[in-house]
Recover the amino acids of this structure.
């Protein structure tokens, strides 16, 4: 009897082991934690779909996504990057916002994401500057916004004004518009950042990318004659009355309304302006590249770039690289472009939307990009600088005093 009981117990044990064996043999999924600032409903949903696509292709990873509101994200990222429990991937912006953390050793290089073909073979090379620091890549770009001069086609056509490509043609267009009783340029500086768009445009066209980058990095004095020269071009527009009067009383959307009513003709603005253009005017809007001022200076543009970084303290860097390889793939980039109407960064991007295609071509055919003044310089310097640019727009005769004051602040902040 004991022998039978022993045989039965042995049989049950073997069966139990066989039943449990597949579970025990299944490899544990590799964890991957992503902190995201894609918090608005449309962006959040699209990112969830991308993560689901990745998980379907790579079931070996267990992805956890923490979504944080954009403004809160900008504060918390410093804590995350310094934490022993840093996430594996974070969303972020290129340019100085990225370089700030790279300089402090808080980011891991992401060059492996583009192996073996390399970044320049997959991404429009103009984006390299915004994604790299000290010869290494630290940002995997996802999408971008471009800055250009938006205008009403019907106004230009009515007054027989060709789309300007050079500074002289731009001045001629402004003068014709003014004589026709139309304010050439709308701008609202109640929120000061639109003035920084003009500051960046003139410096990129007059002094080039390296100068403007060094200026934003605090390496060039605001009293440098080359900077003053760039400001003189801006001063011409101000002294001739080509900008909207009382612009400091208007936000950018309020200023754009002057174009909708036909009282102004142009506006230097980011591509997000199209989200606000009334539907009945959508076909009447177009954009052109900020005009060439010096032919010996390359075509450099202001392009805020969004993407992904790997914290230096991330525990699962191999998982992060696999995730970012997917995010950098044509499949993922096409999904972003088609579901959210954002231009993306891979070479050969084609869109059925002519607006997106034109924007991509404008940037991919440029010689390099910067982010934006308040993204590419020290945050405190950016606040001081943007307020100074608005002061200059209101009182252009104070140019030398304004530049001297900015230089005092530069020496204090970048000491």
């Amino acid at each position: 009897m004991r022998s039978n009981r022993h045989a039965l117990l042995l049989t049950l044990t073997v069966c139990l082991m066989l039943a449990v064996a597949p579970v025990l043999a299944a490899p544990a999924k590799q964890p991957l934690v992503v902190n995201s600032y894609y918090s608005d409903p449309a962006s959040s949903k699209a990112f969830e779909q991308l993560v689901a696509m990745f998980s379907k292709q790579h079931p070996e990873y267990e992805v956890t996504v923490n979504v944080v509101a954009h403004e809160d994200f900008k504060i918390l990222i410093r804590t995350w990057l310094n934490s022993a429990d840093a996430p594996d991937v974070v969303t972020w912006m290129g340019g100085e916002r990225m370089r700030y953390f790279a300089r402090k050793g808080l980011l891991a290089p992401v060059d492996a994401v583009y192996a073996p073909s390399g970044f320049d073979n997959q991404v429009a090379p103009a984006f390299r500057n915004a994604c790299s620091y000290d010869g290494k890549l630290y940002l995997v770009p996802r999408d971008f916004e471009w800055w250009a001069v938006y205008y009403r086609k019907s106004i230009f056509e009515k007054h027989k004004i060709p789309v300007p490509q050079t500074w002289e043609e731009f001045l001629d267009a402004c003068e014709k518009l003014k004589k026709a009783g139309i304010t050439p340029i709308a701008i609202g500086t109640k929120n000061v950042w639109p003035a920084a768009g003009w500051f960046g445009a003139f410096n990129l066209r007059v002094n080039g990318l390296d100068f403007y980058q060094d200026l934003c990095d605090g390496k060039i004095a605001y009293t440098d004659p080359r900077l003053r020269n760039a400001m003189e071009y801006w001063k011409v527009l101000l002294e001739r009355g080509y900008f909207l009067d009382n612009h400091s009383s208007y936000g950018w959307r309020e200023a754009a309304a002057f174009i909708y009513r036909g009282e102004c003709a142009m506006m230097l603005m980011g591509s997000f302006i199209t989200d606000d253009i009334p539907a009945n005017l959508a076909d009447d809007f177009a954009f052109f590249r900020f005009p060439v001022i010096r032919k010996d200076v390359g075509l450099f543009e202001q392009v805020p770039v969004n993407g992904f970084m790997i914290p230096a303290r991330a525990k699962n860097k191999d998982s992060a690289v696999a995730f970012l390889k997917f995010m950098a793939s044509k499949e993922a980039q096409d999904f972003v472009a088609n579901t959210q109407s954002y231009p993306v960064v891979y070479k050969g991007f084609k869109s059925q939307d002519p607006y997106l295609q034109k924007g991509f071509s404008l940037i991919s055919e440029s010689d390099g990009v910067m982010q934006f003044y308040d993204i590419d310089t020290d945050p405190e310097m950016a606040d001081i600088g943007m307020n100074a640019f608005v002061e200059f727009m209101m009182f252009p005769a104070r140019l030398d005093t304004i530049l001297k004051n900015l230089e005092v602040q530069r020496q204090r902040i970048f000491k």
Summary: The CA atoms of residues 40 and 324 lie 22 Å apart. The chain has a mean pLDDT of 90. Residues 2-25 form the longest helix (24 residues). The longest strand covers residues 30-36.
